[in-house]
Automatic annotation (TrEMBL):
Protein name (record): Uncharacterized protein
Top-level taxon of the source organism: Bacteria
Amino acid sequence: MLLATQLMTCEVPLSRLLYVFETVVSPSHRIFGLVDTSVDTYAPHADRANWLLSAPGMVYLQVPPQVIRASVRLESWSTVPPASDAQWSGADDVEVELPGGDLALETIDGGQKEVPLILPSSGLYRMRWQWIFNRAGGPFTSPLAGHRESLPMPPGHEEKLNGADQYCLVQIWRTAASEGTE
């Protein structure tokens, strides 16, 4: 019986954190993004009622107009990372094709800042974006089209904010074309 349990455990792929990169960005025009450097970037014509705006090779996060500095942590994972039990101001997932696999953080005014985050290969990836706002700098208002309400600011993550207006955790993992949405 013990042997059968061990075999079943071995068949389940364990998610491993592969690489981490942390930096601070200054969003411009209430947006910043993660882009594949092999793609000519442009402002995606996306539904501005959503937090994440995406197109092949790029994902942008809309941010409140009060955000001047955002602390960003990018994580590359072997498979789906474990869910966080922390409270966030917001969270969203998106699937995006990354044809080159070399990434950069991008702002409209600041251009691209390459990030040394290594992805296993080019292809289809899933990204989980989670963010929190600095309670000391609030209130923050929604940047979404048709919304101007104050955003939730649960406690926690103060050490990760490190004086920034917003902290973002972006987790990235490769998906198979046949894999369903998580």
